[in-house]
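BACKBONE GEOMETRY TOKENS:
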Amino acid sequence: MAYSAQIGVLFVIALGGVSGCATCPAKVQAALQQPKPQRMGAVSREYVIGCPDRLTVRVANTPPFDVTVEPDGCVMIPGVGRMRVDGAAPGDVAVEIAHHRQLASNSVQVAVAEYASKTVLVFGPGDGVQRVVPYVGPENLTEMLRRTGGLAPGAAFHAVHVVRPHVASGQRPEVFTVDLAAALEKTDSNDVRLQPSDHVYIGETSGSSFARCMPPWVRAMLPGMKAIDAQPE
């Protein structure tokens, strides 16, 4: 046991900064953990509704109700009947409902209760497999990361790429490289405005990758390795 402990100490001395490299810099992670910016309201207002999104409808002096967009792109609205909402923004649907019910436009509100029609795929350390994130509107990459909890331990903040497949349009795929530190310091300077079906690839630090190859008893002796051990392999 003493021999194992001695070897563990040698690993700590030799690797030195592994635990420090295994997590993204505190400044970047702290910025991504901040509350969502106020622009989230503008993002949701620009969202394009589709099947099977769930909407919450509020009409003045009546209880709110939820409706789910059906495969034909329509919903059933009391006092209006079947109404096509596919391809419309929530505000446009509210105006249409108010028009059909002969109400003031500000007496009807429509919001997306569940974003289910569009997604963004995120690949990175800590997940092992791709993570499906609901697309909530034209938000920036940093806004999406804020919304989903920031970066996992071991993520390389300087190795983030957004791939836009363009499968539906038949165009050549696009690849964008994002430096999160620069994007967070200067608004939109190095950020990418996400689109539905984008793929986000987050790299892993060399220290984190190397740490995964260590024997469990060595990893247990290194500070900061518990966060990595807790993640799925």
In short: Residues 1-24, 225-233 have pLDDT under 50 and may be disordered. The beta strands are 54-59, 65-68, 74-77, 81-84, 108-114, 119-123, 131-134, 155-164, 174-178, 199-204. The chain is about 30% helix and 25% strand.
